[in-house]
Amino acid sequence: MGNYIGSLDLGTTSNRFIIFDTRGRIVGLDQKEHRQIFPQPGWVEHDPMEIWHNTGHVIRGALAKTGLSGRDIAAIGITNQRETTVVWDRRTGQPFMNAIVWQDTRTDDICHRLMEEGGQDRFRDTTGLPISTYFAGPKVRWILDHVDAAVQGAHRGEALFGTVESWIIWWLTGGPDGGAHVTDVTNASRTLLMDLRTLAWDASILDIIGIPPEMLPRIVPSIDPDTWGTTRKDGPLGDEVPVCGALGDQQAALVGQTCFAVGEAKNTYGTGCFLLLNTGTEPVASRHGMLTTVAYQMRGQKPVYCLEGAIAIAGALVQWLRDNLGFIQHAAEIEPLARNVADNGGAYIVPAFSGLFAPYWRSDARGVIVGLTRYINRNHIARAVLEAVAYQTLDVVEAMRKDSGVTLSTLRVDGGMVANELLMQFQADILGVPVIRPRITETTALGAASAAALASGRVRGLDELKENWAMDKTWQPQMAPEQRDRGIVGWKKAVERTLNWID
To answer: DSSP string covering 352-364, please?
Structure first.
């Protein structure tokens, strides 16, 4: 058995294969982008066969770069863009159409029909989710409404549905020749079809949406010593390697950041932000605009749940300052500009460019810059941009605390913006808790590797993962309480000014 773990990161724009040692250190990697297909406004598709071919390419590429072979890999873990939907023919392995990507909004009419009885929260008590175009279930219904071959395949019991990890696990373990048709609990919890408590497909919701249960994959734990199958000797690894770990990308980052205790949370600062808070082994219903979702599950143990809050505009606000206003030429310039001033000078920016997301959910809101005086200069605006990211994170954390009663103890951070040390310090100040940046920032891929390492026995338990996790830097709160309170009051007033803009 090999001494390395393979992590397959099936992202929205690219596939990566990263090889880790059992201490969680990166040995080598390869990456390949795939096409983004936009057939109509609001529609986003990927070619599932391209994703599968690229998977082979990056596996072979990473092995070649490191001089390793398939027999050196002890196990494979997979993490993926969540909610993206593939329906394919079990006999041929051919998709009935392109994958419908999580960002796609074509299911809007289906969602509105589902809301006619019971509103947006019709299935929330069962699934933890509002009815939304985001989730996979309505995408399956759209395919069955519009693709005749998929309907015929479903009638014959030959059409299979899966999110991207299901699709790739099926191919890796044999495809039409006995491939495993499975989905892990974290991805199943993003379909709008799974009962959060029983971890089973909900028959009544399947009936309401009109999805034949025969299409659905078997739901399995994220960390599973009962491996779902092995890769084929004629496949890209050239050997039989157990496939035994899978997590949706945000949950993988939570595991990669070793947030295994109640109250531990991670925030990924990318184009937007995804904040996940570990709430323990009971699902917490949200009344403040959060999603309730499965964080991870080990075979034979209770699942661990989390609350998830999405912030639409984070790094995108820096891009807007650069591309739309021409304030800066490179994103990295914003930190030195903001450091030229001690505070925001009373100016706030609320980036409600397409409404306010969590926890407000106000589509009538639009972005504002408020508190302007003759004193304000471009340095204050740069600082207000960074502060907006931290204040939005605070809003989500406060909503999670109201929902769960769980108080945030620390915030572990990853994503592109964590290089910005001014933002990280301000985030610690505003939250009033330590903000911790890990040494390995590839936390999503590390989470998938951790799942496979646990399942295969190469790592003995969560404690060993915690020992392997290495901190790069911690920011402690330093701001005086009255200054913090004053800043938050100003932010809340700024948010109020965004409301009722669109009639």
So the answer is: -BTBB-TTT-BTT
Q: How many other C-beta atoms lie within 10 A of the C-beta of residue 313?
A: 24
Is residue 44 within 8 Å of 101, Cβ to Cβ? yes
CB 262 within 8 A of CB 280: yes
The closest alpha carbon to 312, from 263, 362, 264, belongs to 362
What angle is formed at CA 251 by the lines to CA 250 and CA 255, rounded to 5 degrees?
120
CB count within 10 Å of CB 386 equals: 25
In degrees, rounded to 5, the angle at the alpha carbon of residue 443 between the alpha carbons of residues 388 and 2 is 175
Output the furthest CA–CA distance in the chain (Å, rounded): 71
Q: How far is CA 144 from the centre of its chain?
A: 26
Cα separation, 85 vs 400, in Å, equals: 29
Q: Kindly state the tokens that stand for 4.
A: 């390395």
d(CA 432, CA 438): 19
SS3 19: strand
- Paired strand residues for 31: 16
DSSP state of 440: -
User: Could you list the pLDDT tens digit for every one of the 503 residues in the chain?
Assistant: 678 999 999 988 889 999 998 888 899 999 998 988 889 878 889 999 999 999 999 999 999 999 999 999 999 999 999 999 999 999 999 999 999 998 888 898 999 899 999 888 999 999 999 888 889 999 999 999 999 999 999 999 999 999 999 999 999 999 999 999 999 999 999 999 999 999 999 999 999 999 999 999 999 999 998 889 999 999 899 999 999 999 999 999 999 999 999 988 999 998 888 899 999 999 998 888 899 999 999 999 999 999 999 887 888 899 999 989 999 999 899 999 999 999 999 999 999 887 887 788 787 889 999 999 999 999 999 999 999 999 999 999 999 999 888 888 899 999 888 999 999 999 999 999 999 999 887 889 999 999 999 998 888 888 888 888 878 899 999 999 999 999 999 999 999 999 999 87
List CB contacts of 81: < 8 A, sequence separation 6 or more: 10, 11, 12, 101, 102, 164, 249
- Give me 457's structure tokens: 């026995």
* Per-residue exposure over 45-60, b if at least 16 CB sit within 10 Å of its own CB, e if not: bbbbbbbbebbbbbbb
pTM score:
0.88
Tokens read off for 238:
């050239």
Tokens 């020992």 identify what position? 467
Residues 6+ apart with CB under 8 A from 438: 256, 257, 412, 414, 469, 470, 471, 472
Please report how many Cα atoms fall inside a 13 Å half-sphere around the Cα of residue 321, on the Cβ side. Answer: 30
Whole-angstrom Cα distance, residue 456 to residue 75? 6
